[in-house]
Structures are given as structure tokens and as C-alpha cells.
């Protein structure tokens, strides 16, 4: 099950943490993977690690918010792999200027960054791959989101949460447009990950599993969503959060 041999994937923001876990997991199942990151050294390191483990990967440093860069990368992947990309995982979602803080304190100049990376980033990527996926009759689109898309908090996440809510809605509609062509589109909404968790035991007590998520947890879930076996799973937002939110 979950054999991805012969498939080609792009994972954005894959130079560290969850994205790196996704890229490693897809490659371990046989997919050839484009490892994207804004930071070239990070993309290079994860790509080398995958190749050292016997997988197929190429690093590509570009900014997902730039449509022309995204289109160039998709063209380059096609020529390097000898076939089009048929798995898209848009994981990059935390911009350098996160737009973090109580909304009343945030200057309007900080409103756009979370929306650019999450919502326009998704539009850039989906638009670059969707035509060939539909023409070929097979494709998998996986969007990484956050519990903050649907659960309000006082943690200064209003802009980030709004951008994640927006992209969840976008993917729901895309799923309906591409479903007849054998292409699925789903969102994986993550709870707190180890890289952001710190070591506050009070935080862990709110997670049923008493631990934050790992890159391996995320990678395994994405492998399922990207697999041939998940052909009837589409238009959904799946929570992957250790039981911290159960609705
Ligand atoms: N960390 C958490 O606790 C948590 C919780 C819920 C959801 N998420 C979501 O999971 C995903 C991954 O989070 P993470 O904590 O692993 O992120 P991270 O910041 O550790 O890594 C993301 C990578 O994306 C790259 N990146 C940033 N902007 C980019 C751009 N414009 N183009 C290409 N690459 C870019 C960064 O250089 C970085 O290497 C994000 O979508 C995030 O919103 C994370």
C-alpha cells in the first residue's frame, strides 16, 4: 500500500521541520521529490539527505509568493524528472513577518504577508500544476493548515488564522472542480508541532497524547493523502493534532 513509485512531488517549505518530514516520507515511498525552500541551504541539505538514503530529490530555492518563480520551478521539475508533477504539498505557511500579535497593535503593512504565503502561495502552486494533473487523470493536492483556521484564540494569530481559513476554503472548491478528473484536494490541519512547542508542561497537558507533533507524524499523514489508495478522500480538512481539538 501507499506505493508512490513513478509519481513526482513538490513540497514547499521543505527545508526543515514538517516540510522536511513530508519530503522524506514521500521519497521513502518512491516518489521523486522537489524540495523547495526560500533558503537554498535548507533545500540542499534535505535533498542530499533524501538522496543519501537512496531516494530521488532535487532542491529548488524559490519564493512561493512569486507566480513566475513557481511556474519556472514546475517547468524545471518536468524537464529534470521527465514527467509532470502529480503531487503538490503546499506546506510553507509561516512568513518571515508572521503578522503575529494582537490585531489592534498590528500596522496594516503587516497584514499581507500571511495571506501572501498561504493563500496566494496556494493559488500560484495549484494554478501551475492543476492543468497537467487533470489532463493526465491523476493528481494529489495537499494543503497544510492549522487548527487556528477554525478555532479562535487570544494568542495574536488573527492574520495567520484568517489566511489558513482562506486557503481551506480555496482547497474545498478546487476539490469539486478537479474531482471528475481523478485529482483529489485535501487540507491537513496541524496542531502544535515539536519545533514550536518549547517545553512548557502546561501546553502538553492540553494535548491528549501529551506530546506535540513531529515531522514523521505529518509525513505519514501526507503519504496517505497522496497515495493511490486515497482516491475517494477529497474536499476534506483532516485534523492532525494529538487530540488537542476533537471536533
Ligand atoms: N509549527 C507548528 O506548531 C505548526 C502548527 C500548525 C500548523 N503549522 C503549519 O505547518 C507548516 C510548517 O510549519 P513549520 O513550523 O514546520 O514551519 P518552519 O517555519 O519551521 O519551516 C517552513 C520553511 O518554509 C520556508 N519558507 C518560508 N517562506 C517561504 C516562501 N515564501 N517560499 C518558500 N519557502 C518558504 C522557510 O524558509 C522554512 O524553512 C506551515 O504551513 C504552518 O503554518 C505549523
Describe the structure.
Helix content is 43%, strand content 16%. It is an alpha/beta fold and 247 residues long. It has one domain (8-240): Rossmann fold (3-Layer(aba) Sandwich). The chain has a seven-stranded parallel β-sheet with strand order 3-2-1-4-5-6-7, with helices on both faces. Strand 4, helix 4 and strand 5 form a beta-alpha-beta unit. The longest helix has 25 residues, at 112-136. It starts with 7 loop residues before the first strand and ends in a 7-residue tail after the last strand. Nicotinamide-adenine-dinucleotide binds at residues 12-13, 15-19, 36-39, 42, 63-65, 91-95, 117, 144, 146, 190, 192-193, 195-196.
Short description:
The chain is an alpha/beta fold. It has helices at 17-28, 40-52, 67-81, 112-136, 158-178, 194-197, 201-204, 215-226, and strands spanning 8-11, 32-37, 56-61, 87-90, 139-146, 183-190, 237-240.
Give the helix/strand layout.
Layout: E1 8-11, H1 17-28, E2 32-37, H2 40-52, E3 56-61, H3 67-81, E4 87-90, H4 112-136, E5 139-146, H5 158-178, E6 183-190, H6 194-197, H7 201-204, H8 215-226, E7 237-240
Parallel strand pairs: 1-2, 1-4, 2-3, 4-5, 5-6, 6-7
Helix pairs in contact: 1-8, 3-4, 4-5
This protein binds nicotinamide-adenine-dinucleotide.
Nicotinamide-adenine-dinucleotide binds at residues 12-13, 15-19, 36-39, 42, 63-65, 91-95, 117, 144, 146, 190, 192-193, 195-196.
